[in-house]
Amino acid sequence: MYEKLPLMVPFVLYLLVLIAVSVYTFRFTKTMEGFHLGGRNLGPWVAGISLIFSGSSGWIFTGMAGLCYAVGPASWFMHAGNLFFMLTAFLLVGKRLRNYSGVLGAITYPEYFVRRVRSGGNMIRGVASMAVVVFMSVSVATQYMAASKSMVPLFGITNFQATLITASVVALYCLIGGFLAVCWTDMVQGIVILVSSVALCSYMIYDIGGWSNVTPKLAALDPKLVSVRWVTLPLVLSYFTTGFQCIGRPHDTIRYFAVKDSKSTRKMAMIGMFGFLINYWTGYLIGLVGRIYFPDINDPETIFGRILTSVLNPWFSGVMLAGLMALIMSTVDSCLLCAASTLSEDFYHTCINRNASKEHLLRVSRLSVLLIALLGTILALNSGGRSVMSAMLFASGGLAATFGPALLLSLYWKRLTEAGLIAAMLTGFSASVAWKVGGMAKISSIHESCFGFFAALVLGTVISLITKPLPQEEIARELQIISRDYRVEQLSEIERGFQSAQ
Q: Radius of gyration of the chain from Cα atoms?
C-alpha cells in the first residue's frame, strides 16, 4: 500500500482540484444556456485549449503512442491528416458557426440545424440523438479503456475498479458544474498535459543519452523506425484520411457556440493548433523513444503505463498519470455534456415534454450524463481488449460523417433544404458504419470518416436541389452577416435584432 503512495498523492490531488473547479462553477449553471454553453462568454484561451483537448483524448498516450511505437515516423501521415483537417475546421467553421448559432439563438448542436433549415418536425433531432447516443457511448468507452490500460499495472487494481474510478469522477464534475466546469477543467488539464508530457519526453531522451543516441538505437531495433522510405501509398492514404474525423464532431465543435465573439475565434485557432501540435509530438516521442526501453511488448498501447511503472521516479509517475487522466477526462466530460444537451433539450424537451420547466430540464440533463456514462462503462468493461485507437477513430469518424457535411452545407450554401440536411446526416451515419463493418476501410485504405463524409456531402446536395428551397433572400442575408468578424457588443446587438424579429 505505502509503496503506491507516491503514485496516488499527485493523482488524488489532481482529482480534488477538478472537483473543486466544478463546485465553483456550479453557481453559473442555473439556466440551460449556463449549463450547456457557459453563458456564451468563453475567452479564446479557455475555448481554444478546451476545444483541442476535448478531441485529443487518452488515445494520444495509448493508441497514438502505440502506433508510433509500432511504425515510427510513418505515423506522422496520420498526424499530418489530423492537423490539416483540424486547421480546416478552425478556418471554415469557427467564425461562421459562432455568429450563426447566436443569430439563431441555438444552444445545442441539433437545435442549430433545426433552426437553420426552418424545420417544424423532429426528424433532425431524432437522427442527431441516435448518432450522439451510439457514437458518444463508444467514444466514452474508449477513454475508460485507455484509463484502464495505464491504471491497472500501476495500482494493481482490476479493470472494473479502474473504469469505475474514471467514470465516477468525470460524471461527478459534469453533473455539478456543467459546460463551464468542463471548459475550465479542460484548460487546467490542457496545461497539465502539455507541461507533464514535454517534461516526460525530455527526461526520456536525456536518460538515453540525447537524440544522437536515440536514432542509432532505434535503427538497430528496426530500420523502419527511423525512415519512411518503406511506406506505401495505401498506408499513407489510410492514415491521412483519418483526418476527416476532426470536422464537425459535436463535443468539440460546440466550443464555437460558446466563445464570447467571432473575433476571438482567430486567436482561439492559433492557441488550439499550437497545443494540438505539441500534444501530437509528445505522443509520438513517448511511443518512439519508449520502444528503446521496451523493444518487444505484445500490446503497444500499454507503453505509457510501462514507462510510468519502470522508468520514472514514482512521484513523477503520479504527475504523469494525472496528465493521462487529464487527456481522458477532457474528452469524456465533453462527450457526456454534449450527449446531455442533445438528449435533454433536443429529444426530451422537444419530443416528450414541451412544457418542462428549466429546472426540470436541468435535472434531465444531469440524468442524461449518468446514462451515457453508464453505457460507456458497460461497453468498456466488455471491450475484450480491443484497440483504443481503432475504437476511437470509429466513434470520432462516425460523428464527423454524420454532422460535418451538414455543417459545412449549412454555413456556406443557401440552397440547403431540410430534406437535404436529413439526407446528409443519415447518409453520413449509415455510410461510415457500413464502410467499417463491411471491411471496406481495410480493402480500400480509405477511412470510414472520409467515405461517409463525401457520401453525405453528395447526397445532401442532390436532395436539396430536387426539393423546395427555403426563402433564398433571407438565407443569403444571414450567410452574408455571419461571414464577418464581430466583437461582443456588435454580435449581441445583431443577435437581439434577429431574435426580436422572430
A: 22
Contact 269, 90 (CB under 8 A): yes
Q: Which residue has the cell 468507452?
A: 141
CA-CA distance, 451 to 460, in Å (whole number)? 14
> How big is the chain, counted in residues?
502
Which cell goes with 149? 490500460
**16-52 per-position pLDDT tens digit:** 776 676 666 555 554 444 444 444 566 677 777 767 7
pLDDT band at residue 173 under the 50/70/90 scheme? low
Alpha carbon separation from 19 to 8, 14, 435, 454 (Å, rounded)? 17, 9, 41, 41
The dihedral through the CA atoms of 48, 50, 55, 57 has a sign that is positive
Q: What percent of the chain has pLDDT over 70?
A: 87
Beta-strand ranges (E) seen in 225-348 are none
Cα torsion through 153, 159, 164, 169, rounded to 10:
30
Mean pLDDT computed over 186-203? 78
What are the CA-CA distances from residue 47 to residues 28, 29, 146, 310, 491 (Å)?
17, 17, 25, 36, 18
Instruction: Please enumerate in sequence order all residues whose Cβ is within 8 A of that of 352, keeping only pairs 6 or more positions apart, or say none.
Output: none
Dihedral over Cα of 269, 172, 366, 394: its sign: positive
* Residue in this structure with the C-alpha cell 543516441, named with its chain if needed: 213
- Confidence band of 185 (pLDDT split at 50, 70, 90): low
CA atoms within 13 A of residue 352's CA, in its CB half-sphere: 13
Query: 3-state secondary structure string, 354-369?
Result: CCCCHHHHHHHHHHHH
Alpha-carbon distances, residue 56 vs 27, 50, 378, 397, 437 (angstroms) = 28, 10, 23, 14, 25
Nearby residues of 183 by Cβ (< 8 Å), 6 or more positions away = 38, 42, 46, 47, 50, 255, 258
How far is 137 from 121, CA to CA, in rounded Å? 26
Q: What is the distance between the alpha carbons of residues 453 and 470, in angstroms, rounded to a whole number?
A: 24
Which helix (H) or strand (E) covers residue 460, if one does? Answer: helix 448-465
**Is residue 440 a contact partner of residue 451, using CB atoms and an 8 Å limit?**
yes
Model confidence pLDDT, tens digit, residues 261-306: 778 888 888 888 888 888 888 889 999 999 999 998 888 988 888 8
Higher pLDDT, 468 or 492: 468
Report the pLDDT averaged over residues 208-225.
Answer: 93
Residue indicated by cell numbers 440545424: 113
The position carrying cell 466550443 is 255
Query: What is the CB neighbour count within 10 angstroms for residue 161?
Result: 14
Q: What one-character-per-residue DSSP string does 325-339 give?
A: HHHHHHHHHHHHHHH
**102 burial level (CB within 10 Å; 0-12, 13-18, 19+):** buried
Please, are residues 278 and 57 in contact by the beta-carbon 8 Å criterion?
Answer: no
pTM over 0.85: yes
